[in-house]
Write a structure and sequence with these properties.
By secondary structure, this protein is an alpha+beta fold. Helix content is about 35%, strand content about 25%. The chain contains 7 helices and 9 strands; from the N terminus they run H-H-H-E-E-H-E-E-H-E-E-E-E-H-E-H. It is elongated and about 85 Å long.
């Protein structure tokens, strides 16, 4: 139902945009036709073909100018696409520490079928705990290039695919040490049966911490042109919300871990 519902919403939105576009284009012409005339809808009974007067008009100069600009843009993009992409140096996640401060980690691995499907360059999947606390799962998927349509999968899509329901989702800022700006994350509460988890996730891309998927795509396009770089990663932190603890306890656990791990990520995800 959700899939079909979203499809109808998209089609209706596109139809509305098309109508607005036709209205705007009509406003820029000298004819100033009504929408009925723009759609060529007859105002009375259908006229016979012999009564219809047909006329041709010259191609307007703005149209020719737009075509010229599109051709220039196409050639420019083709030239940009032939550049050798910059792949910045970084440490591989095989050396990511399992022990730092009070946190003790245990390494985990993605199943081969999932690893091959994601098409990522490198990743880390570790479970950490401190002083006997419930674990925090750290997952970072790094892509050295996202030019060919290969990019991090949004947990907003993957979480329901894993059988979990997202019962709460909001954008959140976490103050991290001496950083000039907080880390912007998506904060999600997910549930599967009686099990509940708290999730932070965001996109760490070329020196930016981005929570919004659409802004991530925009910066990806801009940086591919300006910096000739499309490297970046998805960072996800997950911890269970136990039946005998409050949600704020899980919240503090993720915040403490984020404050500790954020400076370490700089060596593995280039700025």
């Amino acid at each position: 139902f959700l899939h079909y519902f979203e499809g109808w919403i998209i089609f209706i939105a596109c139809l509305a945009i098309l109508l607005v576009e036709m209205w705007l284009l009509n406003r820029f012409t000298g004819n100033r036709l009504s929408l009925r005339q723009v759609f060529a809808m007859p105002q009375g009974p259908e006229l016979e073909d012999k009564q219809v007067t047909r006329k041709t008009r010259e191609i307007p100069r703005p149209f020719i100018t737009c075509i010229g600009l599109l051709l220039v843009a196409l050639i420019t993009l083709q030239l940009l696409d032939t550049r050798s992409e910059i792949i910045p140096p970084r440490q591989k996640f095989v050396s990511f520490p399992l022990f730092f401060d009070d946190w003790i980690g245990e390494q985990d691995n993605l199943p081969p079928i999932i690893y091959n499907e994601l098409g990522l360059t490198d990743y880390v999947l570790n479970n950490y705990s401190a002083n006997g606390s419930p674990p925090v799962n750290l997952y970072v998927a790094y892509y050295e290039s996202q030019r060919k349509g290969i990019s991090p999968h949004s947990p907003r899509v993957c979480i329901p695919g894993g059988g979990w329901s997202i019962t709460g989702l909001e954008r959140f800022e976490v103050e991290v040490g001496d950083r000039a700006s907080p880390v912007k994350v998506n904060r999600a509460i997910i549930q599967n049966g009686n099990s509940k988890q708290l999730v932070y996730y965001w996109f760490k891309q070329r020196g930016r911490d981005i929570a919004n998927e659409y802004w991530m795509k925009w910066y990806l396009l801009a940086d591919s042109i300006k910096l000739n770089r499309t490297d970046g990663s998805l960072v996800r932190l997950t911890t269970p919300i136990l039946p005998n603890e409050k949600e704020i306890d899980a919240e503090n656990r993720l915040k403490d871990f984020l404050v500790t791990v954020d400076p370490i990520l700089a060596d593995y995800v280039p700025i």
